[in-house]
């Protein structure tokens, strides 16, 4: 296997969205910390529709650094879509998703590579043992999410305090490429194949510069995406709740009938009626909301819209990134020199073609 050979390649995939303050520092720190394995390292930036100078800075760095590459999306599709684009196009023996803010320590990648090459594991992930850099509210809500997700999901478990920072072997990558859902919850998708994995503890520092692009509303929606994507148990729970309330209503009805037969007609109070009506109404609205979450995501899935659209591929790695679509069963690549309908037949020309738009289709069809 390539991991045991001397010419292995590990690609760092780095999603970027308005990170002009951190990019140069990130590249400098990575090259310093990974000096011993630098010949085996590639850094692939994925610009997710940045409005600042992020792309310009990356282009300046690429001008004199052959190990850098850039995949530029046509607009902001979100971090999960950006990582999907990199996974589809990247051609390496292993990849390491890593944040540009240096909260994921690059020096830990040395441990990842050592374990990956010496042990029979296909994913090596970082486990945050100290999250003091996060707020108390974020630590509590994060712990609650991992607990709820793993309780609800019977088939896929994600380790607690583990983010996207991990080394992923090519066979896991190939499996993830063949998972075509539009709503991408990458932590779950990495775990879904079920290959052997191992955790490496580390202390998560504060951001080196800039501010986080994630607020609590985005994190809440992200958590919902994860739960809805990997378990249907919330739907089943409401069936149980409905059955339980129905049983209580039946018992109460029997109680009222017996009381009426024994004690005569009893006129119920208005307050008690309103309490019951409002309670049952709220239960119904919540259950409709849960069903709506699943229906909304089903509606998105059946449209088969692209998860992302790539507008530009740049850098000395661009030819290999262009050819990367051949390894992605659900992706296509085209440019101005070849019609979309014949792209598969002209795959050999892709490596020589200039980098222009590319997109991932949900089912891999040319439209």
TrEMBL record:
InterPro entries in alphabetical order: Glyco_trans_2-like (IPR001173), Glycosyltransferase_2 (IPR050256), Nucleotide-diphossugar_trans (IPR029044)
Annotated segments matching region Disordered: 345-367
GO CC annotation: plasma membrane
Topology in the lipid bilayer: Multi-pass membrane protein
Glycosyltransferase in keyword set: yes
Annotated Glycosyltransferase 2-like domain residues: 12-173
Biased composition (Low complexity): 348-358
Protein name: Glycosyltransferase family 2 protein
Protein's organism: Candidatus Anaerobiospirillum pullistercoris
């Amino acid at each position: 296997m390539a991991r045991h050979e001397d010419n292995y390649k590990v690609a760092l995939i780095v999603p970027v969205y308005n990170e002009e303050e951190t990019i140069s520092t990130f590249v400098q720190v990575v090259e310093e910390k990974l000096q011993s394995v630098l010949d085996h390292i590639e850094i692939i930036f994925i610009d997710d529709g940045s409005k600042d100078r992020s792309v310009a800075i990356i282009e300046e760095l690429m001008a004199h650094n052959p190990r850098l590459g850039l995949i530029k999306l046509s607009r902001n599709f979100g971090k999960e879509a950006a990582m999907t684009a990199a996974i589809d196009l990247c051609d390496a023996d292993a990849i390491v998703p890593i944040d540009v803010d240096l909260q994921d320590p690059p020096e830990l990648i040395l441990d990842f590579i050592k374990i990956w090459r010496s042990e029979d594991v296909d994913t090596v992930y970082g486990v945050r043992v100290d999250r003091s850099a996060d707020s108390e509210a974020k630590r509590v809500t994060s712990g609650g999410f991992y607990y709820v997700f793993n309780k609800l999901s019977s088939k896929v478990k994600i380790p607690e305090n583990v983010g996207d920072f991990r080394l992923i072997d090519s066979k896991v990558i190939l499996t993830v490429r063949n998972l075509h859902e539009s709503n991408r919850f990458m932590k779950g998708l990495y775990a879904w194949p079920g290959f052997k994995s191992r955790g490496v503890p580390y202390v998560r520092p504060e951001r080196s510069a800039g501010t986080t692009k994630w607020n609590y509303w985005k994190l809440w929606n992200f958590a919902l995406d994860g739960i809805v994507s990997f378990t249907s148990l919330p739907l089943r729970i409401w069936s149980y709740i409905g059955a339980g309330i129905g049983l209580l209503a039946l018992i109460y009805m029997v109680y009222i009938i017996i009381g009426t037969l024994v004690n005569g007609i009893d006129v119920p109070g208005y307050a008690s009626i309103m309490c019951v009506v409002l309670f049952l109404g709220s239960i119904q609205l919540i259950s409709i909301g849960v069903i709506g979450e699943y229906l909304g995501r089903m509606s998105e899935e059946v449209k088969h819209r692209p998860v992302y659209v790539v507008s530009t591929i740049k850098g000395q790695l661009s030819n290999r990134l262009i050819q990367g679509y051949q390894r992605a069963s659900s992706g296509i690549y085209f440019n101005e020199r070849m019609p979309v309908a014949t792209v598969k037949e002209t795959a050999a020309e892709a490596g020589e073609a200039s980098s222009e738009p590319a997109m991932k289709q949900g089912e891999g069809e040319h439209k």
